[in-house]
Specification:
Helices cover 36% and strands 33% of the residues. The chain has 5 helices and 9 strands. The radius of gyration is 22 Å and the shape is elongated. Helix 1 packs antiparallel against helix 3. It has 2 domains: 101 residues, Roll (PH-domain like); 57 residues. Strand 2 and strand 3 form a beta hairpin. The chain is α+β, with helices and mostly antiparallel strands and 173 residues long.
């Protein structure tokens, strides 16, 4: 019995904003009378063109990141690929509480992605990959807090209830 969820950042609108901001620069570079000619661009090894495309490449790489969360009767593990190569695992013995809670990504954590809680609460980390307002909160016995957003909150809630009753895990409330 295991719950597995994979999710990533879906920020399609960032392509639109980046395109709108880069368009004037590209127009000046290619269509302005005093701009570089094709010969000059070849001499510069098309570096200006590469620099115009670089923000799109960065956005593409960000969108390929993937958070994998696995929960079973032994504990939970997660990995945020490519930034975490190894699976981070926490056993139920190390967990004080686990529950589904509401959160506000912007006022509590300053937005989406991997975030530390605002106002210098360094023991509180969140993996917020979607715009839903409910996620799974873990409070570890060492004082650290981990919050994971979820696209399957209802499934996750049923899984936790089932896990608590079958395996008598006291950390799940």
């Amino acid at each position: 019995m295991e719950f597995i969820e994979k999710q990533g950042l879906k920020i399609w609108w960032l392509y639109l904003i980046t395109g709108l901001t880069i368009f004037p620069t590209a127009a000046i570079l290619f269509f302005y009378e005093g701009g570089p000619s094709m010969q000059e661009l070849k001499a510069m090894y098309f570096v200006p063109v590469g620099l115009l495309l670089l923000p799109f490449l960065i956005i593409f790489i960000i969108q390929k990141n993937q958070l994998t969360l696995k929960i079973n009767s032994k504990g939970f593990s997660y990995r945020y690929f490519p930034f975490q190569q190894k699976l981070v695992t926490h056993l139920w013995d190390d967990i004080e509480e686990a529950y589904i809670r509401k959160y506000d990504a912007f006022s509590e954590y300053g937005g989406y992605g991997v975030k530390m809680r605002l106002w210098f609460k360094f023991m509180d980390k969140a993996y917020l990959m979607n715009d839903k307002s409910r996620g799974l909160q873990f409070i570890l016995k060492n004082g650290r807090k981990l919050l994971f957003s979820s696209n399957k909150v209802d499934e996750l809630e049923l899984f936790l209830i089932n896990l608590k009753t079958r395996h008598n895990i006291k950390a799940i409330r």
